[in-house]
Amino acid sequence: MPEQLPPDDPVTSRPMAGLVLISVFVLMLTVSWSLYDEFYGLRPWRKYQAEFSSAYSNYLDKEYKQRRADEQKFYATPQYLKLLADVKAATDAARAKDQEIGQQIDLLDRQRAAMTDSFTTSRGLVGSLTYQLEQISEKDKSGKESKLKELNDAKAQTFDVAWPVEGGKIEQDKFNYDKLNGLFVSIMQAKAKLVAQRGDVDQPAKNAQDKLNEYVKEQLPGLASKDLFSLSQSMKSLDIHIRQINVNPTGTSLNNLGGAGLVDRCQSCHLGTDPLVVPVTMTLTKADLGLAKNNDAPFTSHPDPDMMKYHPLEKFGCSPCHGGNGRALDTVEKGHGRYEHWLWPLYYKENFNAGCQQCHASDMVTEHAPVLNRAKTLYREKGCIGCHRFQGFDNQDEELVSARQAITQLDNQKQDDRLQIAQLNKKGDTAPDNEAANRYYTEATNLTVTMSGMDAKIEQLDRRSANLLREIKKVGPDLKEVRMKIHKEWIPNWLKHTHEWRPTTKMPQFRLQDDEIQAISAYIWNSAIAGPELPKQMPGNAANGKVLFEERGCEACHSIGEGPNMVGGDFAANLSRVGEKDNYDYLVRWILNPRTRTRPYSPFEHKDLGPEDYAKHNLPFVFDLDHSRSPNDGHEMIVQQMTVMPSLRLTVEDARDIASYLETQKHADASFPAADFMDNPSPETMQHGKELIQHYGCAGCHEISGLEDEGRIGTELTNEGSKPIERLDFALLTEDAKLGVQPDGKKSPRGEWYDLKGFFDTKLSDPAIFDRGKYKPDPMDRLRMPKPNVTKDDIDALTTFLLGSTDPTLPQEYMYKPADQRAAIQKGWWLVTKYNCIGCHQIGIGQRSVLMGLPQFQAENKQNLPPVLTSEGARVSPDWLKAFLANPALSTTDVNRNGVRSYLQVRMPTFFLSDDEIRTLVSFFQAMSSQPQPYIPQKIEPITTAEKEMARDLFTSTAAPCLKCHATGDPGHDKSAIAPNFLFAKERLQPGWTERWITNPALIAPGTAMPSGLFKRDGDRWVFSGPVPSSFKGYAGDHANLLVRYMFELTPEEQRALMGRTPSGGGSGGAGK
Amino acid sequence: MNWHQIWEVASAPDNVPIVALLFLVPFYVWYAFRQALANDRLIDKLSADPALAKTEHRKTEPWNPKWEREVHTWPYLMRVELVAAVLVTALLMVWSITLSAPLEEPSNPNVTMNPAKAPWYFLGLQEMLVYFDPWIAGVIMPTLIIVGLMVVPYIDANPLGNGYYTYKQRKFAIWTFLFGFIGLWVLMIVIGTFIRGPGWMWFWPGQTWDAQRVEFAVNRNVDQIFGINGSWIVHFMPAANASYAPILARIIFGIFPLALYFIVAGYLVHRMLLLTDFSKKIFKRMTLLQMMTMELFLILMLSLPVKILLRLLLRIKYVWVTPWFSI
């Protein structure tokens, strides 16, 4: 028993007030916390908007002050004052008349007001009675009559009207229905007339005011001070609220958000992108707002306002292009969608072009998306496409298969139809009556006609297949001909040291062990075709070869020189060490015509045909584009090398010179270890080599004997950007990726990289990295992807491309698949880039060709550049263009020259384009210049004899010695010619373009040698701006037009006659003026 | 050791209740036992002096004769409850402000999450799926749990210990509860949360949850261990049905270990019920039906840990295999 008892029962006596107080206090504290969280914690955009409001209104105030000062100064300029005085004078002049008309209109208005009450009452009554009358049946004669009487009484009823008249007086009058109706009509007519009159009277004043406004707009562009002031006022009292864009395309889901469509609230923080806040004519930068460059306040306006024109906010919102969670506003991370559960995070800065790819996947070239364009070029040129299929990307092989399937299907259909025709005829023969018989016979006849239509279709498909066979190209060289082309020892060395030997090569570095290299080399060497033997070539002049190499335009695609000395394009191989590996004889043949094949390949028979196959059929061993069918079975064969390199139509001497020059391109100490293992390898080695080549997908880029039908070995990448992260194998790096540790052990600057971007970036920089730590004793189990030869920027570009290549979540109508002329442009770019037309030509406005950057085409040598093609579709006739593209020499015999610009050393090569490719290119140029298709030539007025004489005078005047620069076909003269022969004009040019050209060539091709200002504007015609020949006296026609018409009728005889009249070539002609 | 892993699991907003459970369950067990033992001491004192029992308030605190025998609910109980309600409300508010419910990505039927886990309160059931076939673990066992809890008042023949904490008077009930709730239910939730990783594999704390992990484990049925293939039964069957022999043999064979378990477990449970004089006294108060019901449920409850041990230690998949269900 305890000794001391507590005095009171603890249950009843223990005080609890303190505890209750504390707990209530705690509760109040949490309630206030939750209120704060509700209004500020979860709404960080409030703070941003408040900050923006003050920063932006400060900026606007500053701008306003500046602008006001500018305006004050401007309002004092005499030009402005004069225009202002003009306005005042014109207004004053019209004032008296204006006021007079105004008074008349006022009277009419008062009259109408006075009668309105009576008129509406009367009209209502009459209208209602008329309706009642119409409703009475015709039979009820008496009823009808009484109603008619009622109606007439109503019409006769008069109303008291206080009628205003001129002089401000008012007359009391009585009007009935007809009178009121008549008055109403006449008042309205009179008023309309007066208003028109007043418009005429005020016109001069209005014109003066327009002129003033236009002048102000011209001199002081941008927002006026009063606009700036009101904008600033509204920003000072900025209403802080969620700013959102709602896009609700019908029946679609955006970003898988379901039928609710798209809601983007980005502008709640990024206020500068709201056109209501920053007008589209303004731009807002951090510097404007007085923010440091590293301040991450999201206030600037959209950096590419041009882009916003094509992609209006109300249709596209923000997140479809940029990614991110447009609805989230709690935190920056949530809004940008950079958290585990948001599948469409904001693209990083270096990848923001990915947003373009989603809709522009069908484009090879997308404006405003340089990173994406670079990626697509890389994807093709680095040979990614050799292993990784990509929907719509160089898929001629697939098209070929489907064309062949379509043919088979049509053949089957025809067979079925034939049976049906026989059946129908039989039914007709046994039909009970003539009518039925005829019905059967007609049906049978219709079917035969349908069948003949199918034949046309089959014919086209056949041609298409033949074309496709020609269009399929390989990224890498043909390995069937290595025995003729390459020094044996070079091959294993190349496989081992790909990127060291040629640091700019497209070929990726494979992870091969020495025995694998030996097996592959042995297979390639021994499977290659051996003959027929190449003809032996005489040595050429290397010095001349160098000149030719630089002049003919080889460097538009190829570069030469190593490291910092490298000059030329990167479309094709760097040729600095070609001399170490290539056989001279083969090189000569290659330069003469790279498409020359030693043996044709028959895809149907799966073999290369040789002279023996032709001999069996008593045929000479001749195969080319005109003899492309197999002698054995008549199937189309591949008769050309599958390279995009064109023929430059050189003479064999020139080819030898260039080849000799290239043979000098080598390192002095070049030598390769002996490779005896490549001779007589065992069948096992050969088999192993073949398996390795299949395993590594070499045949994706190279033609290799026995592996012509190999498919692409890699993953299809069309929808790679939509791949769930779980499907990407980070292997043993998974944890590191989640912890943000890079493979090199350093902390990743952007933290966790367990996402698509992290995978693509890492995979592209080292594809083998995901094998790290894996136990794979058999090399065939290792990751196959070779290391691509790419820079950091290339990797960013390719990652961008892959991130954007998604299974489209956007509605179909957002996809850029135009149905109009732009489709031809879209399609054309694939070809233009395939054959690197832009290596030599400028095709898009602002685009620079490779040649434009080369040292040999600078300053006055710019005139040696190939023509600018920005207006090609408007310039030339498409019919001519077709012929030119097929044969740029425009001749079958004299081919060592350019067809049009024979004076240019740069050679327009022969690409051996297929008909479909020519069609695509012509359509492309037509569409680029907004030319309708099919082409119908413009009519030209025939030239009269008198005009002809005048034109001759002008043509040969000292002020316009046209023939001084333009070629004539006379070899002596053409040496100094720098412009095409006029004789081409008729077939080649379009008259409209020609006229625009001769009046102002600099508008079309800035920097052209053709002088601008030959003509000046005189009223609505062009007249020659030099001293006009005397024969032009009194001629009222257009001089430029006359010249064009003459040009289009020029004959060789006429031209020769002109030559005699031309002032001497060295004269002080006006061409340079 | 990968402490990041365990931190990630423990800090996930979904797992807050489980982390709390880890601390709250032991605390309240301790707290209940403290009160129960204090009461037991009082019971000892009062039963030693029956006179005292007439005047005592049966309170564990030292007694004062001036104290009221009873006190009112209002305000003496209600005010305590008010403070508790206020504090819990505050706690819930702080919880909801600081931890937002995670909204995950749209489901993708082609990619299921790994590991895919049930809500925390069902993790015990999910863990049971490892040891039984879905019929047993998902339907029979949960039904038995509910029915078992329902029969408790009907089989409880112990009149003591109602309305106050006591250990001495309800040892059997308390141990059964601790075994069933903490030993099975809570433990399996903790295992399901912290131990089961990708592929529902067993990861000790500190091990990385590696989705690539490969484990070799062969679980066999008891009949496979004994090589039962029906070769002896086929002689007694019509030739046409010979192919059913292995199935039939397995069914017949499986009954034996199961029966053995029931006999052994029944014996042990029965022995346990008669362990002390007190329990013998209670046992005598029970009807046969009450006794049978209680023993049946105890045997079934015991089968769960037995099966878990069989699986984890002896790699036994099923004891009794039939074409319809397996145990």
Q: How would you spell out the order of helices and strands of chain B?
A: HHHHHHHHHHHH
Helix content of chain A: 40-55%
Backbone CA Rg of chain B? 26 Å
Overall 3D geometry of chain B?
flat
Describe the structure.
The complex is a heterodimer of chains A (1073) and B (327). Chain A is mainly α. Chain A contains 40 helices and ten strands. Chain A has a two-stranded antiparallel ribbon with strand order 1-2. Chain A has a two-stranded antiparallel sheet with strand order 3-4. A two-stranded antiparallel sheet of chain A has the order 5-6. In chain A, a hairpin with a 5-residue loop joins strand 1 (159-164) and strand 2 (170-175). In chain A, helix 4 runs antiparallel to helix 5 (141-156) and helix 37 crosses helix 39 (1039-1049). The longest helix of chain A is centred in the N-terminal third of the chain and has 58 residues, at 78-135. Chain A is globular, with a radius of gyration of 41 Å. Mean pLDDT of chain A is 89; it is low at 255-259 and 1064-1073. By secondary structure, chain B is mostly helical. Chain B has helices at residues 3-11, 16-48, 50-55, 73-76, 78-98, 123-128, 134-155, 171-195, 222-225, 245-273, 277-285, 288-314. The longest helix of chain B is centred in the first third of the chain and has 33 residues, at 16-48. Chain B is flat. Chain B starts with a helix and ends in a 13-residue tail after the last helix. The model of chain B has no long low-confidence stretch (mean pLDDT 89). At the A-B interface, helix 1, helix 2 and helix 26 of A face helix 5 of B.
